[in-house]
Every structure is written in structure tokens, then in C-alpha cells.
Amino acid sequence: MHQRIYIQEVAPRDGLQIEARFVSTADKIALIDALSRTGVAKIEATSFTSPKAIPNLADAGEVMAGMTRHKHVDYVALVPNERGAERALAAGADELNLVMSASDSHGLANLRMTPWQSLERFPAILDLARGRNVFINASISTAFGCPFDGEVPASRVIDIIERLTAMGIRGISLCDTTGMANPAQVRTLCKEVLGRWPELMLTLHVHNTRGMGLANVLAAWQAGVSRFDAALGGLGGCPFAPGASGNVCTEDLVHMFEEMGVDTGVDLDALLAVSRTLPDLVGHDVPGQVVKAGRSSRRYPLPESVRAR
Amino acid sequence: MHQRIYIQEVAPRDGLQIEARFVSTADKIALIDALSRTGVAKIEATSFTSPKAIPNLADAGEVMAGMTRHKHVDYVALVPNERGAERALAAGADELNLVMSASDSHGLANLRMTPWQSLERFPAILDLARGRNVFINASISTAFGCPFDGEVPASRVIDIIERLTAMGIRGISLCDTTGMANPAQVRTLCKEVLGRWPELMLTLHVHNTRGMGLANVLAAWQAGVSRFDAALGGLGGCPFAPGASGNVCTEDLVHMFEEMGVDTGVDLDALLAVSRTLPDLVGHDVPGQVVKAGRSSRRYPLPESVRAR
Questions:
Q1: Domain Pyruvate carboxyltransferase spans what residues (chains A, B) (predicted)?
Q2: What percent of chain A has pLDDT over 90?
Q3: Is a pLDDT exceeding 80 seen at residue A99?
Q4: Average pLDDT of every residue of chain B
């Protein structure tokens, strides 16, 4: 089990895309800039999708142009197609996060493509990126189950990874888009993937829809995974996946690992300070728990009855 | 790792004790009766404490007298002292759950006794129970940390268990009273305890204060623990432990294990049906997530855009 893990903060993309209200470009930039100073390894800054599909992220280019890049942070852009890839490359993304689904119905609902159609489109995106200093990651949505199709066999996910790695892709994210995964399933799939592709940069992306977020993260870590997506405050959700709710919460994940003695590279106090700004930013309470309860090391004053003894 | 786990439902005690409003005796009885039909192994029905200290459970005797006992369920009463034990025995409890703290300050705040004073009092309670067909469990609060004193060394908990087992006590609950435990700590302590006392009926009791509830349960299960306390809806908290919030949620815990293929003995649908009555019972929303999201196996209809293809 790795004693150092790496966090990709996805709140600016996965978090803000689903919010009821548009977060201003200036506020998005301020959020990314604040996150850049917390020690996270990567920030998924935005998504170069159709503004019609995801109006909240219509300002993707302005956000990437306005943010201040920190040398220790990789800035990632989600891209669903060639047009998105061109825009993300023009914006200077350090990494393109290609997205596809493991299940037919979610693929069709989210991207209007089956997994096999997505795989046919990816080489054209890779061609656009060739010769540029940009890392390519592929996110496999509904890798642990689909809200429409139900169970997604591990063999299908393995088959998809086989094809992705054959294209030269070295980064894969297994995404539990609607929080259907359980720890036994996460452990089995992650072990199988890392067993077959030990050099793969494998990331786990989970949602906390059914309360298993941190348990699934723990199971993946035990299976050898050291890269995790998480969203500040537990924001997040997929507009094209009914029942989706927030991502696993970054500060709660960082807190758990730090308490376990595992280095996350993140300054938890700095992260909590940014988290405290979220309710004002999005206009509602957010699910994160450590920001409310304080760290496990928090001490309370003795009650009067004890002090008086 | 055990393929069958046993659930003690603690909402009627740990859940209702902290609620702002008094739940009527009839409603408590109805809750216990409904829980009795779900397949949980034990129900902590009430606490025989001073009505001044815990006014919400002042009707402990009436509750125990009014509920309908199910032959497959053990009905447990929490008892802080001899007076409580006498009342619990008179009420026909199947099990007395003696309570003490691992830390001095929480012991003084909650029970007006240090751990060592509690240990001196226990033999008198055991004398009362001798010759009766009643199981004795001892719950060790703040076993993973104290909100006043901070870190609680594992050696102190081991020392306490040594003394409890020397008295003939065969059931011990390790309680993370204010959700300070992390999975590495839970694994280490549970492994040590089960290594030393393989025959011990060891129960893990965790609160989800910092989001680690199910991760801690998973870690304990991996360490060989098969008995878990949990509260329906994630109710719960200790009035004498600042920062305490809800117990790990029973239906979320059952759902996780059932999804993992581990038998809980519980009918999850029946449990979810009882959980749906909670907001009306306590007058507010509760933290449980599966009751809102549905099981992982929940399916949604295909969106029109996909159906129209």
C-alpha cells in the first residue's frame, strides 16, 4: 500500500457542472487559484463540452486563461470529442481527460455514443495531441455499474482498458458515476487492472451517493491505487446520470489518509479554509463533514462539572 | 473475514437519547417492534440511567414492558451503575451493556467516574446479574480518542479489556464515541484485541462524525470483527461528548455488506421501510443515504433521447 497518494481536485469541473446556479468566471478562477495553493497534484479545471449540454462550464476557455498556474499542479481539462480537445489544447491544458462510458445507455445519454463508438473517436483526439506536451487520461464512466443498464461486467471494463492502452493511453480513471460500487467490487477490479497493467496511472473516481465513498477509496488504496479524484465539500454529480450525487469529499479523504499516516501532499488546513468558502459560492450547504466537525485531533474544553472537581 | 455479520441496532437508545424532542413511549415501542421484524441480531432498546441525565429515556421500564419480544432478537439495556442494572434486570433485559470510558475526562463528564473507578464498580453489577440468564457486555467509550483528553493509547484499552475479561465479561464493544477513529487505527486495535482474546464477542461501535464510519467498519471487518453497532437513519450522539454526531447508519452499513456478498441477516427492504418513518418520528431529516438514493441495484428509465434512437 502506497504511503503517498495523489489527489486530483475535481470540484471546478464535476462539482460546478451540476450546480443550479452559474458560478461566475471570476469566482471559478478564484476557487482554482485557492486550490492550487493547497498541495493537490492535479486540478480538473473545467470541461470543454458544448455550452448547451453543460451551460455552467460555458466559460471553460476564460477560466483556463484567467487562472494562475502553480508549477506543482497539473491542470486537467475534460474533453468529450475532437472539438473539445482542440479548445483544451488551445487553452494550454496539461492533461486531456477523455471521457467515455463503460455502459451503452449512459454513453448514449451522456455522449450520444456507445463505448465502442467512443473508442473509435479517440484516435482522432490522440492525433490532435500528438507532439504536444500533454498527458492523456481516459475516464471510464459507469465502470462499476450503470443507472440504466445495471451491472457492468468487469470483463467489459478490462476489454475497454485493453483497447485504450493499445492506443498508447497511459492514464485511466475508473469512475463510479452514481455511487453504485462497493468495496469488494472496487478491490477486485483495481487489483485486476493493476495486476495486468502495473505501470498504468490508475485513478479511482467515486461518488458518495450511498455513503460508501471513503470505504471504496480505502479498498482501492489497499489494492494498490494511489491516485484519487475528489471534490471539495463533496460537490458533484452527473447531469446525465439520474441519482448521481456528490463526489467523495476531498477534505474528508485527505483527513482520513493523513490520520492513517499516509502522505497526501495536501495542507489540510489550507484545504479546509477553501472549503469554508463553498456554501457562499454555491448558495447552499455542502456534504463535507470534517469542515463541520473539525479534525479528529480537535479538543474541547472540559465541562464545568469536571473542572470543578 | 466473516461472511456473516451481526447487527445491533442502537437507534432506540443512542439515537433517541440525543434528540431535541421526547419521542413518546408508544412511538418508541412501535419503533422497536418494527426493528424486531427486520432481522437485526440485537436491539439496544433503552438505557436505565438517571432521568435527570437522559430525560429522553426516562420511560426505560415502560418501553421494555411494552415492546413485543421476537425470539431471534436479544434486547439490550445500557446500564451505568447498580441501580440501572437492578432496573434492567427487573425489566427482563437479555443483555446488560455496562458502560465506561477509556479516557478520564469523558468518564468524569459522562459517568462521574474515571475508568479505574468504573472498573471498581463493575463487580457489584456482575453480582446482581449472577445466576440470571443475562449476557454481560461492556462498552468502552472513547476507545479511539477522547474529545477532551485527545489520544487514547491502545495499551490503555488493552489494559481495560484485560481487567474486564478477568471479571468474566465475554462481550466488549470498542466505541468511537465522537468519530475520531481512522481505519488504520481500527484495524490495528481490533487485530490486537482479537489476537489476544480470540473467543471474545467483540463489537465495533462507530460514529460517522468525520465521514469515516463505513471505512472504519470495513477495516474492522477485515481485521476479523463480525459484530457492529449501528443506528437506523444514522441517528445518535452522546450528550456528554461535544462534537459527537450520528452513529454509522444501519441501512447504509447493511447495504454495503449485502452488496459485498456478506450476509447480515437483515431484510434491507424492511429496514428501509422503518427508516422512512424516522423523519416524522424525530421531526427532522436524518443522515442515512441509501434510503434517499435507493440501493445500488436501483434502475432508472432510459432518457427520451436514448429511447428515441
A1: 5-272
A2: 93
A3: yes
A4: 96
Q: Tens digits of per-residue pLDDT, B125-139?
A: 999 999 999 999 999
Interface of A with B in 92-121 (CB under 8 A): 105, 108-109, 112
Question: What's the pLDDT score for residue B74?
Answer: 98
What confidence category does residue A238 fall into, taking pLDDT thresholds of 50, 70 and 90?
Answer: confident
Q: Looking at chain A from residue 55 to 94, which residues have their Cβ under 8 Å from any Cβ of chain B?
A: none
B224 touches chain A (CB under 8 A): no
Tell me whether strands B6-9 and A95-101 are parallel, antiparallel or unpaired: unpaired
Under an 8 A CB cutoff, do A109 and B303 touch?
A: yes
Contacts of B237 (CB under 8 A, 6+ apart): B14, B17, B18, B207, B244, B245, B246, B247
Between CA B211 and CA A213 the distance in angstroms is 9
Please give the residue of chain B at the shortest CA–CA distance from A222. B219
pLDDT tens-digit map of B45-60: 999 999 998 999 999 9
B212 at interface of A, judged by CB pairs closer than 8 A: yes
Q: What is the ipTM of this complex?
A: 0.97
Q: Which residues of A are catalytic?
A: 238
List, in order of start, the domains of chain B with CATH numbers.
6-307 (3.20.20.70)
Degrees, nearest 5: CA angle A209-A176-A11: 70
- Work out the pLDDT band at A309, boundaries 50, 70, 90: confident
A30: which residues sit within 8 A by CB, 6+ positions away?
A: none
Cβ of A212 and B245 within 8 Å? no
Number of Cβ pairs < 8 A linking chain A and chain B: 145
Estimate to the nearest angstrom the gap between the alpha carbon of A213 and the chain centroid.
12
User: How high is the pLDDT of residue B309?
Assistant: 74
Please indicate if any CB of chain B lies within 8 Å of the CB of A308: no
> What whole-number distance in Å separates Cα of residue B78 and Cα of residue B71?
20
| A210's grid cell | 450511498
Q: In this structure, are residues A46 and A75 in contact, taking their beta carbons and an 8 Å threshold?
A: no
Give the mean model confidence (pLDDT) for residues B141-169.
98
Min CA distance, A264 vs chain B (Å)? 15
Q: Which residue of B has its CA nearest to A218?
A: B215
Q: What is the pLDDT of residues B161-217, one digit of tens each?
A: 999 999 999 999 999 999 999 999 999 999 999 999 999 999 999 999 999 999 999
Q: Is A271 exposed, middle or buried (0-12, 13-18, 19+ CB in 10 A)?
A: buried
**Cell digits for A303?**
465541562
Kindly give, in sequence order, each residue whose CB lies less than 8 Å from that of residue A308, ignoring residues fewer than 6 positions away: none
Cα three-residue angle A190-A194-A199, rounded to 5 degrees: 145
Amino acid, res. B101: S
CB B256 to CB A303 under 8 A? no
Picking from B108, B198, B202, the residue whose alpha carbon sits closest to that of residue B147 is B108
